[in-house]
Specification:
8-stranded mixed beta sheet; alpha+beta; 16% helix; 5-stranded mixed beta sheet
């Protein structure tokens, strides 16, 4: 297990800090709600050499050490990119929700998807919401991201959570795959489409926005290609 200090922003008590223990990390792939669009995406990836998943959604276990709450990550490959996702965590009492990025090595993805995800840290915001506070307007929440590269900063992703599997469905799928004890587990949900295809930038900024409650979780990180990989 690994210990992290997070802030929980609630409607009742406001914001307070809590120490959590993470025992496992799961990344969900192909987690879209519209199966036809998921299949279209699989076909598109197949054209560039990415093998289709064995299951839909697909499950990619990660090491707990991959979680990164900082503002910088080091990567080995030059072709890596972030993916804005909602993230679930059960603290022993209730489900919490935050924002994460399934940063992935796109070159390795054509050879081995699991290795492509394990090759990169998994950035995570340090502010969490109670699922109970947002479940009644879940589909209205928005994921957005921006990328910065040599062309400057521009929007990279934008879509509502209506495009992704709802929490109940995602948890049921995980149970079907044998994940029955999900306490102390960080679960990355799968991502929303990019606006212009993969971009390999130097900074990734992303947010989970709740217009109804007028709040958002924001985070950003710089991407450094390690020495000798440029």
């Amino acid at each position: 297990m690994k210990e992290f200090t997070i802030s929980i922003d609630t409607l009742e008590k406001g914001q307070y800090e809590e120490v959590i223990m993470v025992k496992q990390v799961i990344v969900v792939g192909y987690g879209g709600r519209d199966i036809e669009k998921v299949e279209e995406h699989i076909a598109e990836l197949a054209e560039i050499g990415v093998a289709p998943p064995e299951t839909i959604p697909a499950i990619y276990p990660q090491d707990v050490s991959s979680i990164n709450l900082g503002d910088k990550i080091d990567v080995e490959g030059k072709e890596t990119s972030g993916e804005a996702e909602y993230v679930l965590f059960h603290n022993g009492e209730e489900w919490l929700v935050t924002l994460g990025s399934d940063h992935t090595d796109r070159f390795l993805e054509t050879k081995d998807i699991l290795k492509s995800k394990q090759a990169c840290p998994k950035p995570l915001a340090d502010v969490f919401w109670r699922l109970e506070d947002i479940k009644d307007h879940w589909d209205e929440l928005y994921l957005r991201s921006w990328i910065k590269d040599e062309k400057g900063k521009r929007k990279y992703q934008e879509d509502s959570l209506h495009s992704l599997l709802p929490v109940e469905t995602l948890l049921e799928k995980l149970k079907e795959f044998g994940y029955r004890d999900l306490s102390n587990t960080v679960i990355f949900s799968g991502t929303v489409p990019t606006l212009e295809g993969f971009v390999y930038g130097e900074k990734f900024q992303y947010e989970l926005a709740d217009a109804k409650l007028n709040r958002r979780i924001e985070s950003a990180y710089c991407i450094k290609v390690m020495e000798g990989q440029k």
